[in-house]
Design a protein that fits this description.
Its EC number is 4.2.1.17. It catalyses: a (3S)-3-hydroxyacyl-CoA = a (2E)-enoyl-CoA + H2O; a 4-saturated-(3S)-3-hydroxyacyl-CoA = a (3E)-enoyl-CoA + H2O. It is an enzyme of class 4 (lyase). InterPro entries: ClpP/crotonase-like_dom_sf (IPR029045), Enoyl-CoA_hyd/isom_CS (IPR018376), Enoyl-CoA_hydra/iso (IPR001753), Enoyl-CoA_hydra_C (IPR014748). It is built from 12 helices and 10 strands. The strands form 2 sheets. The chain has a 6-stranded mixed beta sheet with strand order 1-2-3-5-7-10, with helices on both faces. A 4-stranded mixed beta sheet has the order 4-6-8-9. It is an alpha/beta fold. It is globular and about 60 Å long. The structure holds acetoacetyl-coenzyme A. Acetoacetyl-coenzyme A binds next to helix 2, strand 6 and helix 5.
């Protein structure tokens, strides 16, 4: 499908979705959010895609929600259209693993979009921030909630109250990103991680997603019970038999998502 504000390439069972509004540092306007939602829904439906990488340009993953589009809206406008609530639904529904590959600015909605992915790999030039405070508002799609869970209260308060940016080293130290790589290596590294995930049983990778996400939604006791039951349930799959047999026979497992 041809899009105006994103580009999608599929290779080796991995979809690479690139935000593409260079004139606005990939600011998230309504067209981009609609197109991204369509691309994610299609990728989740397409059997030939087993993992997704979401990226931007070298200068910006995304510099936030589109300020030009929002500036004149009233409370009634944004409340009535539930601004950003509906547009992030496809990301919330996504069952396939998705990696954010962040280079340059990931600010406001850009940082929040990266945090909605399963994990973030970033380039050495990455800058994360929740600068909405400078616009007289606050983060609207997770900047006070997900960020606090990822980096803790002190840094989340600091970032949201001062609007300062966090560089790649601090982001890795704080647990916001899983890896930092030299800027030119970002896409190869993210694609390689995605291909590794694509080799696994999708029944197991989806279960990992559900189980790790459950850790943010419930108590430790409930989460541990959920995890144990999920572990038990995977013994009903052919992929568990194949994975364990392959280990014992000292060969590569051939998973069939059964
Ligand atoms: N919305 C709309 N346009 C944006 C934008 C945004 N969030 N961020 C950058 N742009 C546009 C600029 O207006 C500029 O366009 P023009 O050339 O037409 O003027 C172009 O992108 C390039 O930007 P700059 O000239 O500002 O580039 P820079 O290198 O000097 O600065 C920057 C880069 C520090 C990222 C700066 O652009 C900036 O501060 N952007 C805004 C960041 C921000 O406040 N994000 C939060 C948005 S609110 C939000 O996201 C709410 C939410 O939680 C959902």
């Amino acid at each position: 499908m041809a899009y105006e504000t994103i580009m999608v390439e599929v290779e080796d069972e991995v979809a690479l979705i690139r935000l593409n509004r260079p004139e606005a540092l990939n600011a998230l306007n309504s067209t981009l959010l609609t197109e991204l939602g369509e691309a994610l829904t299609e990728a989740d439906r397409n059997d030939k895609i087993r993992c997704i990488v979401l990226t931007g340009s070298e200068k910006a993953f995304a510099a936030g929600a589109d300020i030009k589009e929002m500036a004149e809206k009233s409370y009634v406008d944004v409340y009535t259209e539930d601004l950003f609530g509906a547009s992030i639904e496809p990301m919330m529904r996504l069952r396939k693993p998705i990696i954010a590959a962040v280079s340059g600015y990931a600010l406001g909605g850009g940082c929040e979009l990266a945090m909605m992915c399963d994990f973030i790999i970033c380039a050495e030039n990455a800058k994360f921030g929740q600068p909405e405070i400078n616009l007289g508002v606050v983060a609207g799609i997770g900047g006070t909630q997900r960020l606090t869970r990822f980096v803790g209260k002190a840094k989340a308060m600091d970032m949201n109250l001062t609007g300062r940016f966090m560089d790649a080293a601090e982001a890795e130290r704080s647990g916001l990103v899983s890896r930092v790589v030299p800027t030119p290596k970002l896409i190869p590294e993210a694609l390689s991680a995605a291909r590794k995930i694509a080799e696994k049983s999708t029944v197991a990778t989806r279960t990992v997603k559900e189980s790790v996400n459950r850790a943010y939604e419930t108590t430790l006791r409930e989460g541990l019970l959920f995890e144990r039951r999920a572990f038990h349930a995977l013994f009903a799959t052919e992929d568990q038999k194949e994975g364990m047999a392959a280990f014992l026979e000292k060969r590569e497992a051939q998973f069939r998502d059964r």
